[in-house]
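Hi X.,

You mentioned you wanted examples for the new student's onboarding notes, showing what a folding record looks like when two proteins sit in one file. Here is a clean example. The first protein comes first, with its sequence line followed by its structure tokens.
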Amino acid sequence: MSQGTPAAQLDEGVPGMSLGEVSKRYGSQDALLPVSLEIRDGEFFCLLGPSGCGKTTTLNLIGGFVAPTQGTIWIGGHRVDRLPPHKRNVNTVFQSYALFPHMTVGENVAFGLKMARVEKGESSRRALEALRLVGLEDLGARLPTQLSGGQQQRIAVARALVRRPTVLLLDEPLGALDLKLRKRLQVELSQIHREVGTTFVYVTHDQEEAMAMADRIAIMNAGRIEQVGTPSEIYRVPRSRFVADFIGESNFFDVTLDASAPGVAVLKDGSKVGCPNGGVTPGSKAATLMIRPESIHVVLPEAAPPGSLRATTVQTSFLGSYTRVAVRCEAVDDPVLVAVHGKGEIAVDALDIDKEVALWWRPDDAVLIEGAGQFEEGTGE
């Protein structure tokens, strides 16, 4: 994407927002390496990654709280990277509710309209409309201190939406809430998004939160974007070991490939297992085979199909909807995790500690990833 011109149009039309080779440096430290990204109009888009990956820096660049070192930012077809925050038609919801304690709920929600000199009657109508949107229209006369944490966060969302921004930025808005309340508000925020149709850009380090809410997710690591896709795409077809390791539970096998034997991967102990064709150049000495725990079948050795791995159980953990079985095999250093749901090919009760078993998987259920090794530590925000 060239600087100074809008991003190319997507199939769905002009993107609601785009970043063109945007970067941010503080002194000698790169908080964000050059990033190009397109977010569709009305999309619920999530920036996901560990602490220090650059996701908050990206959000601050979009909001205008910091200026980019280079690159361009476009919102609704207008370049905004040279504009101050109040001229971008963007609003932000923070983890800290930032409500004025001396003002009522209604006054808090209407505050932005008051600053914009919206007529009082119109301001009151829109504030009530915003409170209805978050289901708190009966609490307008209360003070913030009289509300629960979840209610205060919904008030913060109402205040941010009352000015009808083109883009709503949400910076870990549920991070201060307990798990049960977070899950409930995840559903409520998704419903609010569908109702208002505003573009949401949501920052979180919680993979489950991102998977539950987002239309698409950008996985960030060490100041760069590793992958952009739907939750299903990122989970099922991760493009790097970092993404596969960060999203959900994964088993990794270092393998080599033989061009004369497509669909076969050779493990470090010489064992041969099934793998998908394509994706990695045959003969690569630094390939990784990734298999999710739910895709691995555990059977007794006498029932093992060709291409199975011999293993020994080391732990079983009943987790309600499934049982997680950890096994040790010579082909990999770390224990292999298997998720057994319901009545599998072997009874869970039969999986005693030190039980000899065999593991197998369908080749298409595995993912081949170029390269091997652990992910890189981030240095951004």
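Then the second protein repeats the pattern, sequence line and then tokens:
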Amino acid sequence: MRGAIAGDIIGSYYEFHKIKTKEFELFHPKSKFTDDTTLSMAVAKSILDNEPYLDNIVDFGLRYFDVGYGGSFRKWLNEDEHRPYNSWGNGSAMRVSPIAWAYESEEKVLEEARKSAEITHNHPEGIKGAEATALAIFMARNGASKEEIRERISKDFEYDLSRTVDEIRPDYKFEVSCQKSVPESIICFLDSDSFEDCIRNAISLGGDADTMGAIAGGIAEAYYGIPKEIEDRVYGYLSEEFLDILKRFDFGV
């Protein structure tokens, strides 16, 4: 989960300052956590306290309201009844990483990923994006190779993972749909040689940088781990509430 948070924070500045290079300042003076981190924390708290995903996503969403939610999600937060709105956006994938760490079978990970997505993103592509991201993280943390992850995700979710970052980058534009950002984020991991390189890949595409950083970073953490210097920097951006959730998540309390 820390990998997703790191990717979110590093990508936050570059979401609105697009770049097409891997040479950039990793932590910009205006870096911050955004909705990706906030809603991941909501999902993590739901797991820790055995509470509905919906309840904590609404609670965290309203209490951390100015962290960059999309327009449809902001409108949903302010409604009296919180019903799914058939979204295929990548918000379902950005918040799913805690689930991939909390459960010990593929079946349970996929089931919970689907549950966490469908409270808002009940479009098939929205659910698929969350499931694919969670499964990739789960496989990585259980020792799967990159080729095993590529083959499984390609087969199960019909994503084209045969491309490279260098092939994608020139024509890639800002995209919030799962179907046009989740596969690219997974490729950023597959086409990397370290945690930092994965994040640099994701930011360099010039797309939805914080969310793609979160998706790719979540997988990269499970595969590579996170360099201590990056992890320590990340903690400095987080609220005490978020730090407490991370600590509890580590120890399952």
